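Help!! Second protein's tokens look totally different from the first
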Amino acid sequence: MRKDIIMKSTLYRKSISILKYLGLLVATILLFLGLNFWSNQLDDLHIQDVKIYNTFFAMENGKPTFYLYGKLKPTFASYSGGAFTQYNNSNGDNYGWNTSKNNVYIDGQQTHSPFGSKEVVFRIKSDSKEGLTLLNQNLYLTDHHHHKIKIYNAQTKTQPYSINQKDTQKFIKQNKLH
């Protein structure tokens, strides 16, 4: 009988140990999944978080296309985006870009992942149906806090962040654009 009690108590202790480890494993997995979900949530790109390296125009399928290259500054952020189209989120906010007669406002997004890419590339293609003539409009990188950076001046045909300021005039001349 004593042997039976010792066996049962040993089995009980082993069962409790296994349950503790399984509980710790499940808690760790749930914590990882929760952090992963939080870190991959899209958030507004904050202007102060972006360092712009270069901007330029290129022709794609016969249409002027604007490119912006940069890098995110914060450690816990990564870029999410690419070619921009206009869409509304569930709150009704516009994302991608907004236009007025003389201006185009490009909105970006980021995630909080420390492992994501820090490189930023925005590409926006001219589309007269959508009001994007690009070469005849000022271009701004904006965020939802109403901060903006002018990245192309339509009146002077200059780009403050372009590696070579003559790129725009040369591009217009080469492609016989107005």
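Here's the second one for comparison:
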Amino acid sequence: MNKINVFLQEKQLSTISTTVPDRLDYLMRLNNLTNIALSEIMCCAESTISGYRTGRRVPDIFVICHLSTIFGVTPNYFLGFTDEICPTHN
């Protein structure tokens, strides 16, 4: 892999690690969900949700998909590849 590809992958990962907490926090506030409420929905510890919101933990792709389903957004929105919350279907 060349240096440019490595740089782009690192940039994408750093963008994802800051985007996911911001978008999760925004969607939780929009839906009036607390860490406790979301942790019950996701069957995980409250500290796990807190870690996702603060960026101390990075959710894996399965968690991203589960969160996307809960909030009705695409995984691409969560990962920062699009700013469109609800995609339009043609």
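Reply: Different proteins will give different token patterns, so don't panic. Residues 3-30 form the longest helix (28 residues).
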